[in-house]
Amino acid sequence: MKKAEVAAWLEERKIDEVECSMPDLNGIMRGKIIPAKKFLEDYERGIRMPMEVLKETVNGEYIWDDEVIQDTDGDLQMVPDFSSLSLVPWYKNPTAQVVCDVVYPSDGKHNDKAGQELPFAPRSVLKHVLKLYDDMGLKPVVAPELEFYLVQKNLDPDLPLLTPESLTGRQDQSGQGYGIERLNNFDHVVDQLYNYSEKMDIDVDTIALESGPAQVEFNFNHGDPLSLADQVFMFKRMARQVGLEKGMFVTFMARPYENHTGSAMHLHQSVVDKVTGQNLFAELDGRNSRKLFYYIGGLRKYISHCFPMFAPNINSYRRITPYSDAPINTHWGLDNRTVGLRVPASEVKNRRVENRIIGADCNPYLAFAASLAAGLLGLRERVSPGRPTEGDAYKLAFSLPHNLQDAIYKMSHSKQMKSIIGEDFIALFSAVKLHEYNKFHRVISSWEREHLLLNI
Question: What pTM did the predictor assign?
């Protein structure tokens, strides 16, 4: 959009303020709120932010290890991507929001890189992977399915979560997967999610009740990975706001309850030839193509190399347990929901593979980038996926990382991921997640006090 078009958009909607945001490494929204008039005066020069926000951990601390990466000192500039411009529908005063790219400023300590995108910013990482596809004449298409829980407001983190009161006045104690009436009991929440999604140009498709109590899944229509990452990024923030309006919390924790299934972000993905528009994953006669198999082979081979981008938190690994609706390995199969990589029954134009390993707590930009990168490596290297799994994949070996530390070690030593995702990003992301892991291990849990205090 040109400046005059931006000004007209803001004026038509009587916008008072503009929220300019960027995702940090954890997918947390960072940025500034700017009066509309000042935004129009300043946005072309870029909106300044300290670069250290990309060294911020999930608990708000910063890592200061200068040996990790030197380029995280000084300022960055946020440059709005107006394809993401939308309303913030819950404010009384008309407010807009826009997701920004992150570039080096022209008057800082990195003048030699002025205007270049920071290679370790999450949105830049995804754009870099998409450019690799573009250079090959290919366009990836994705469709995320995002699960989350509605829970009672929890003001004491030492206490377990409880399910919220529904319109019946009762609390769900168990799941009713795909139950229409049970989902209707939360219509006051779901209707507002739909309402806000429409106002924010978030392209939601279908909704279903999942296996856990008050666990919901929103499916997004397929499309461009960058646009959909922006939509998931904004949806998470919006859903939490809706929860507050309805007197509850919305959580995207991978496993918020000890005795209930976790929440995933299943990612459907395909690849299209830019010239012909043909889906590379299917032959014209309907058969699965060799390129589909190579792509699956890449996912199978390289998922463990980028696993912290699918399971970025301590809690992520509590979700990945047998018979919990989460896969425990990278086996693949045809319309098999026990495997990590599923090929749904589909027509030629929408033949795809579903990555079922990703947790709902992921940063969508990084999860998309990692899954697409693994598939691209499979296409390049013509990796065989092996035979499809028939039957129960939970009876096969557990082959995913068991904890965040192991996953970080594998990723930080992967030459292939460094070559396609970027060495600087891998170094910084590994340092931030390892800091969080070490911080967690200094916490003494209630389980330890319960079972060890007087028994050993």
Answer: 0.96
